[in-house]
Design goal:
By secondary structure, the chain is an alpha/beta fold. Helix content is about 40%, strand content about 15%. An 11-stranded mixed sheet has the order 4-3-5-15-14-6-7-13-10-12-11, with helices on both faces. The protein has a two-stranded antiparallel sheet with strand order 1-2. Bound molecules: nicotinamide-adenine-dinucleotide.
Length: about 425
């Protein structure tokens, strides 16, 4: 397709799909959104590190700047937050990386992040949470954390089906729910906001399937389905039921073992086939406790959208906070890498923010392209930089022995380490 304000980098080739397989050239075009707020700091810094690691391992990515949020308003006009050509660039090139985008609270436009995930049907948000040597953590044994969360990305209360208080629509929905569905004494009198929580068989099963396949491929022991099905029986509870059906019906027992009654009974006594991945259920509130008290017992977590948002941030805090935590969204032959953190407006434009989360998100993207050696080099160079005490402000304030450096200096230090380690 031809673009208006986006420059297509010369000499790059597209990532494509043939016979249901991703075809990755050595010189792929990778669309990149630097992002709002601290995105203007961490975006360019991460791009530099990713480029360096790719070059050192014999690859030649061609970055294609595309725009969303403030950068789109600057380029396309005040009312354009997510230009069509940005969405098209992401659709056409299959892989991309983005920094954070600001969402106004209460009123204003809907989340651009959510819009992108829904439009491109990026149904799984995957966040690996692992400890890097030298990162300050509030936990006694942060190195016990090695979890990967799979968060359903297209439905739940994030689907955006909601009605504002005081509108004709909200009264219509209230009347329907009260008069026709029989919930006539459930809602309080007076102004009210209402929303829907759709959880479908399709959305639940494909997410859980993805988590189980990941566990099998990466030699993990357990997949935990995290929900609040004791209260929200027909949405969260059904997510658990459909998830267990996938485990039970779609894989042989010696490969995947669906633990019976795992919500209410300890599984220590259960006889699990050797080498099988165990799939169990846990309630979300208890899970937040177990994650801290029995960190090493968990491996891969799969959950509906809202639980996934909360739990993955909390898991990130255990290994050093949002500046570190990477993520990526996956769909059918698609990957959009993005850090867990937001645009942190208070720190924007000060060359202070930590680009690690975006850099490690780029590592996930490279691994999706099959560039595992590039990914490993990035991880090793980041770890070397942090453990030697060169860190940004967020980690420096928790470590007495550290040297506090700017975003730019930190990225340069990682590039030096990439060169040394390559
Ligand atoms: P946030 O993640 O932006 O910031 C919370 C705090 O975490 C910051 O004040 C800062 O102290 C720290 N922090 C976060 N990232 C950091 C980094 N890279 N380096 C150092 N410190 C860092 O969360 P928020 O304040 O709740 O949200 C701000 C905006 O970001 C909102 O508009 C929100 O909608 C948006 N947001 C976007 C995404 C996304 O783009 N995927 C995700 C979350 C929030």
């Amino acid at each position: 397709m031809s673009y208006d304000k986006v420059e297509v980098p010369e000499g790059g080739e597209k990532v494509t799909v043939e016979n249901d397989e991703l075809q990755v050239p050595e010189n792929p075009i990778i669309p990149m959104i630097h992002g709002d707020g601290i995105g203007q700091d961490v975006g360019p810094a991460a791009q530099k590190v990713l480029q360096k690691a790719a070059e050192e391992t014999g690859r030649d990515p061609h970055w294609m700047r595309v725009y969303a949020g403030q950068s789109a308003r600057d380029k396309y006009g005040e009312d354009v937050n997510l230009p069509d050509e940005t969405v098209e660039a992401l659709r056409e090139h299959r892989v991309a990386i983005k920094g954070p985008l600001t969402t106004p609270v209460g009123a204003g436009f809907r989340s651009l992040n959510v819009a992108l995930r829904q439009t491109l049907d990026l149904y799984a948000n995957v966040r690996p949470t692992y400890y890097l040597d030298g990162v300050p953590s509030p936990m006694k044994a942060p190195e016990e954390m090695d979890m990967v969360t799979f968060r359903e990305n297209t439905e739940d209360v994030y689907a955006g089906i909601e009605w504002e208080q005081g509108t004709e629509e909200v009264e219509k929905v209230r009347n329907f729910v009260e008069d026709e569905m029989g919930f006539d004494e459930t809602m309080h009198e007076g102004p009210i906001g209402l929303g829907l929580k759709p959880i479908s068989e399709k959305g639940s099963k494909r997410l859980v399937r993805e988590a189980i396949d990941y566990a099998i491929e990466n030699d993990r022991d357990k997949v935990t389905l995290v929900h609040k099905g004791n209260i929200m029986k027909f949405t969260e509870g059904q997510f658990g039921t459909w998830g267990m059906e996938v485990a039970d019906e779609e894989y042989p027992d010696d490969e995947v073992f669906a633990a019976p009654d795992s919500l209410w009974e300890e599984q220590d006594e259960v006889d699990i086939p050797e080498d099988a991945v165990m799939v169990e259920e846990r309630l979300a509130d208890a899970m937040l406790q177990w994650m801290q008290l029995r960190t090493d017992e968990f491996d891969v977590l799969a959950m509906p959208n809202l639980n996934g948002d909360y739990l993955s941030d909390a898991a990130g805090a255990q290994i050093g906070g949002l500046g570190i935590a990477p993520g990526a969204n996956f769909g059918e032959h698609r990957c959009l890498a993005e850090p867990v953190h937001g645009s942190a407006p208070k720190r924007a434009g000060q060359d202070k923010a930590n680009p690690t989360a975006l850099i490690l998100s780029g590592r996930l993207l490279f691994e999706y392209l099959g560039w595992d050696d590039t990914g490993k080099l990035i991880r090793d160079a980041v770890e070397e930089t942090i453990s030697s005490g060169t860190v940004t402000y967020d980690l420096a304030r928790q470590r007495e022995d550290a040297e506090k450096v700017s975003t730019t200096e930190y990225a340069e230090a990682i590039c030096d380490n990439i060169e040394d380690l390559a």
